[in-house]
Amino acid sequence: MKNLPLLLGTIIGTLLLIGGIAFFFSKETTPTTQVLDTAELVADARNILGNESAVATIVEFSDFQCPACSASEPLVQAVVKEFGDQVRLVYRHFPLDQLHPLARTAAVASEVAAEDGAFWPMHDLLFERQADWSTLGSVAEAKTTFTQYAVELGLDEETFGAKIQDSSVYSSLVQKDADLGTKVGINATPTFFVNGQKATAPQLRDLVTAIVQEHSATQ
């Protein structure tokens, strides 16, 4: 047993070496939270709820035909209502065309409505009735249905109908949002950013609360 101390020392040394290597690589591979530039996320945004001086900015990349997006809306609206002027919501289109074949048409409908100041009413109606129009069999049927929604919102049927039929201008607006989403790494909907920090819908309230409290503490 004369070699026991030497053996124990070798084992301990080996374990310490392994532990040190593991610690080194764990530090190297620990993911960091990426914070994007809010100015880039909101640049040229068309659909904004709230004022520019709000201390917290939520940017939402969403798809009107996405069930998860619809399910998240009550959480989003609750945060907007609770914090009032302290938060603004920026809506960005990110239609997942391969999964949701009518999402882009719905996005176009919202942009047509936006020309008459009715983006948010159309936004709400599209999500509220998602189960109704998502099962329609064609884009043509969807355009007819969305025109009916526009009439319900008090928009002119003939004007809206003509614009949604010849929709290249509005489709390019939708694509502009989608291109930004792709640029910043969006691959699922809904995706949120709060002052540039990526978040899920259930995290929105806590993040906005922290931002508002931090701002209040510095005043």
Please specify the SSE layout and strand pairing.
Blueprint: H1 4-29, H2 38-42, E1 48-49, E2 56-62, H3 67-83, E3 87-93, H4 103-114, H5 119-128, H6 130-133, H7 139-152, H8 157-165, H9 168-183, E4 191-194, E5 197-199, H10 204-217
Which features characterize this protein?
Glutaredoxin; five-stranded mixed beta sheet; 5 strands; 58% helix
What does this 3D model show about the protein?
There is one protein chain. With about 220 residues, this protein is an alpha+beta fold. The chain folds into 2 domains: about 1-30; about 40-215, Glutaredoxin, CATH 3.40.30.10. Helices cover about 60% and strands about 10% of the residues. It has helices spanning about 5-30, 40, 65-85, 105-115, 120-130, 130-135, 140-150, 155-165, 170-185, 205-215; strands at about 50, 55-60, 85-95, 190-195, 195-200. Helix 4 runs antiparallel to helix 5, helix 4 runs parallel beside helix 7 and helix 7 runs antiparallel to helix 8 (about 155-165).
